Records
---
Amino acid sequence: MKKYLPTIIVGLLAVLPLIGLSSYAMHILILVIMWSVIGMAWNLLSGYCGQVSFGHAAFFGTGAYTAGILYGKLGLSGWWGLPASIIIVTCFALVIGYICLRLRGPFFALATLSMGVILRIVAENMVDFTGGDLGIMIRERTWVEKIWYYYIILALACGTFIVVKLVIESKLGYYFVAIREDQDAAESLGINTTLYKTIALCLSAVLTGFAGAFYMNYMGYIDPKVVFALHDISIVTIMVVMVGGVATYWGPVVGAIIMVLLAELIRSIPLLGTAHHTFFGILLIVIIIFLPNGIVGDFAKLKRIAGFARRRS
Amino acid sequence: MSFLEVKKVSLFFGGLAAIKDISFSLAKGEILGLIGPNGAGKTTLFNVVNGFYKPSRGDVLFKDQSIAGLKPHRICRSGLARTFQVVKPLQRMSVHDNVIASAFLRARDKKQAEEIARDVLEFTGLFEDRDVISKGLPLGKRKRLEIARALATQPELLLLDESFAGLNPSELDVSMEIIRQIKDKGITIMIIEHHMRVIMALSDRIVVLNYGEKIAEGAPLEIRNNAQVVEAYLGEAQSA
């Protein structure tokens, strides 16, 4: 059963739009799947390899701007942004990695955090190239119907899931976890920690960049404050994985469902809606105290608590 | 032509000399003991040989190639593995996965890495515990896991940093037997140890450090009777 779980879920998701969901429901589904992609990508670098990034907006935004600039400056379809972002985002990741990966733990986290912010400011100021604060708008969306966007992001998510699974079960995966657990021990066991951390960063960045390029095409509009956002992209990325379960295959997916639905729910509450970050903060505190391994990682514990509560009632 | 040669190595931290002008060499197949009081610079010397520190002066030759200043992973690839005094198991990985991770250094694929890991675990007597998460192992077995992990990189020279500290007498015998078998495989060993019974029984030769300097070198029996060594360990004999 467990072996076929991914196939069953993908099968269900593939037929889901055929039952005629509303445009809003489709939008939420697309967001959930997009956030799963970003979560899985972050998980690779930060969950498995232990290099916690607070700046994944840098890669998301780079992917989005790659697509946007191809459309805006070169007149190509924004979808070329997907293949192009492999090269562009890898270059960015190599530069960022060269600077940041020599730092460890919280210092790496702070350095990546600043990278996201720096790229936002650069994008705001290079007006000729990026359009500055006005952002980039795609005047004609590829499709009016959401269903095609849905299938594209679903395919991206499946691809990401497969890539993560293959990587984690190979030599790379063992090396990533070894680096997370003890960098000095890993180094003395013959693991080139700098090389493998860079590989983890590049893989993670490219997958995040895909999500960014998709976002450009799907939303049709980006500006620096949206795609290089610290709290709405970088921090939400971390929350998706923390809530779902760090270093688990399904954690980012579960986290994405919860975070997207929660964000929609809170935003619809009158008056409190603008304070949704406060709610995220409270949620994060609760998760860290009671479910430090996330919902997937602490599922057994969660079931025990639920079972206990049922018996008492 | 020696197997490992430490040539006039010094390491300074600021103005402090952690080790000063140390020279010695190792022949292939021998066991060299490294002893000295706490803070004498034994582990620091390991860190220099293993590549964590670049010596401020002097050179380290391994198989006639200079390895001073190379990265630890390069040195490990050339056939030199070590264990840590403060054990560093990959905590949230099972014992088996710990050893697989280091076996990948020489393995072509995952299947071969698993085979190497299985052999090493059987050799070190950890096969029964292979599925235990290494955080949960008792100290004796964690020390042995350190050795297993180093062996999985298929080294020619093994540096053991206090692999016997904190073991009970029966664990001590098991570990000593493992060390002898490692030697029989043709692996050269350098060993730091405070247990005199262990070091005297295992070593072919002993180097003694005190305050970062080499104060004696010789066969176990010579070292036992060396006045300077006795003084370093027990303090100067009081004049009446």
Note: The beta strands of chain A are 136-137, 221-222.
---
Amino acid sequence: MESMLHITTLHYLVLGAALFLLGVIGVLTRRNVVIVLMSIELILNAVNLNLVAFSRMWGGLHGQVFAIFIITDAAAEAAVGLGILIAFFRNKETINIDEVNLLKW
Amino acid sequence: MLIGGILVITRKNPVHSALALIVTLLAQASIYLMLYAPFVAGVQIILYAGGIMVLFLFVIMLVSIDRSMRERQFNSQWVAGIIAATALGGLFIAVYTKGTSIFPEHALPVVENDNTQKIATMLYGQYMFAFEIASLLLLVAIIGAVVMAKKKI
Amino acid sequence: MGRIILYIQSYLSSDQTPGAAGNMFWVLVYIMLVFGGLSVAVIAMNWLERKILAHMQVRLGPMRVGPHGLLQPIADALKLLLKEDIMPAEADGVIFWVAPFVVVLAAFTVFVVVPFGPTHAITDMNIGILFMLGVSSLSVLGIVMAGWASNSHYPLIGALRSSAQMVSYEVAMGLAVVSVVLMTSLNATGTGTLSMIGIVQAQQSQGVWFIFKFFPLGLIGFFIFAVAMVAETNRAPFDLAEAESELTAGFHTEYSGFRWSLFFLAEYSAMIAVSSIAVTLWLGGWLRPFPNALSGSTWDFMFSFFPAAAFLFLAAITFFNVVRMPKHPLFRIQTIGLAGFGVVLGLIGLVLLVPAVRMRVQDIFWFSAKVAAFMYLYIWYRGTFPRYRFDQLMRMGWKVLLPMGLGVLILTAGVALLQQNLWHP
């Protein structure tokens, strides 16, 4: 086991960055609103991962406390976002994000 | 976790996407355990995987998806999206390769058994204000979600 | 051979759970033991439920399959395994296949932290109770997936109702649990703990089971948790989502054969899991009754005969029924079977009289006895109470149990503060 690669903070940061990129691609390229919201959750998770990795590196627990706040925040935002989705769906009968263009001139 | 993430953004059926997101969240919780953050892992499982994803699944079932599943799944500007994401990825790689000197080579061998107690001390001591604001935020979010999803206000 | 005995002995004298000690071999042995015990418990629950419900309804229950229906669960299991596995045509294949496994996984993973004794848990996580609550909330996901994948109305409505009910009562459960965690912090150092073994040790050091602490706050908290746990596992009187007369068996309508038995297994395991949470948090886990009021080695000695006495009592009942069996030649095999069962019970009772075994089996016996009492309560509720209507159910979860839970929490905190101020100024 001695020759095993040490998992340093950099590895966690790269994983977080990869998740972030996946989330960004999801937000930018999908048309289904629910999947866009799920990609936003992916982005928030990537940020959490970065925070907790840094908290481990520096030894203090501030990162973990902040991560708990972010998880709480994500719950609130998911609820409100899905509420907006339901309200919009009731009016327009589609969940295609390209058709959310009532302000288009 | 990465496979779960890729599945989230590429599946046609939103229910499959939600399942992949659940898998990703559970994998994330186990990574938190690897990072010696058991409380955050527990909170992640309860709130994210057990709460938010149930909310997502409820809404997916409420909103009819049959018609949208037959439409085109990806945006008309998906090329621009991927280029933007690649640029962002390049930025990340540049930052990480430049700054790799500030990361210590070995992990700190701190194994503590009172992680929860320390987080609680910090949460109710130093971050008390943020705690109260977070609870206010949740209250506002609850009221907002209920108001927006009602048929008649 | 001698080395194996030395290894076992060196393990038995350790003071840590196998998970905490990092001992992979014993972790695997414990997992096998817990899994085996759980399967036996589920099978026994099946038989017990049918017999006890029947006796409550003044009838006899299954009597034919084995002596007094003892082989009935095995016959049921065989039937379910051999049944044809039907999948609806329009159902979503992947989700339909995965849903029962998610529910079973969520129900079985909970047992990783259940403490059968001070060192007899698979592991003692720092966040034990948080982990249990979280993993049992994953079974909601499995139920929603099952209802969705069946692609027909009744399962979908049943699944949505069932998951809404489970999510609502999780909140009440969480509040009751938080008030208990508060009570664990009333020790000398002022720090509580979330680990299950720590909670029982706090009860031991404070000298009172948490159900009796700050009377009646502990009792109300226990009551809230007891109601919430029955609603959480979708059992009577909260079983609107899966009762046969309401929605044609709800979310597991379209499942047949082995998959249905997985749901059934998961339901009983979840019942045992939340009962063990209740036992650990309120009823003192593995502690024998009156751990501090009647303490001392003589009382320990007298209480240590309980397991053996219980098994011998069961063996006596079995032999009494053997004598009462009809004396027809066709019943000879059943009589011999019942007598054999009685002999097995008696042998277990006699083995438990051996001093070395007697000292070690105390914790596990008391824990299992309390969980068995909860199982009896579950069956009793099913036989006694009429079913709640769904809106009454949700009203009770949000408008009655949640304010009660908050009130108990605030009052417990207040009384704890007063106690600390008055006694340690």
Note: Residues 62-92 of chain A form the longest helix (31 residues).
